[in-house]
């Protein structure tokens, strides 16, 4: 039983090191960028709903492109994850 736990922990550690190395080398950027962009778009939608709940109307009090989440999502779309490092 101890051998199985040791093998599993070694495999998990090797996978963690491999994924960490791939992330820091930038090899996971194509996989991470759409996820991060989706998160910022969701943040912008939440901000939009909050402003609408306060009674503000789009076009009069705020513009969708000015929401922080949309600005961050467009930076990710234009610059990749390099735009995320500047936040």
**Shape verdict:** elongated
Instruction: Report the total helices.
Output: 4
Evaluate the radius of gyration.
Answer: 20 Å
- The N- and C-terminal alpha carbons lie at a distance of 47 Å
Keywords:
87 residues; mainly alpha
Description:
It is a single chain. This protein is an all-alpha fold. 75% of the residues lie in helices and 0% in strands. It contains 4 helices and no strands. It has helices spanning 2-25, 29-53, 68-79, 82-85. The longest helix is centred in the middle third of the chain and has 25 residues, at 29-53. The radius of gyration is 20 Å and the shape is elongated. It starts with a helix and ends with a helix. The mean pLDDT is 79.
Q: What topology does this entry show?
A:
Blueprint: H1 2-25, H2 29-53, H3 68-79, H4 82-85
């Amino acid at each position: 039983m101890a051998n199985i736990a040791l093998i599993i922990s070694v495999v998990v550690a090797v996978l963690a090191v491999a994924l960490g190395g791939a992330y820091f080398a930038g090899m996971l950027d194509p996989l991470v960028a759409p996820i991060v962009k989706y998160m910022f778009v969701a943040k912008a939608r939440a901000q939009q709903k909050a402003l609408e709940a306060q009674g503000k109307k789009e076009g009069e009090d705020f513009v969708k492109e000015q929401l922080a989440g949309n600005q961050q999502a467009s930076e990710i779309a234009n610059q990749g994850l390099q735009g995320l490092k500047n936040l």
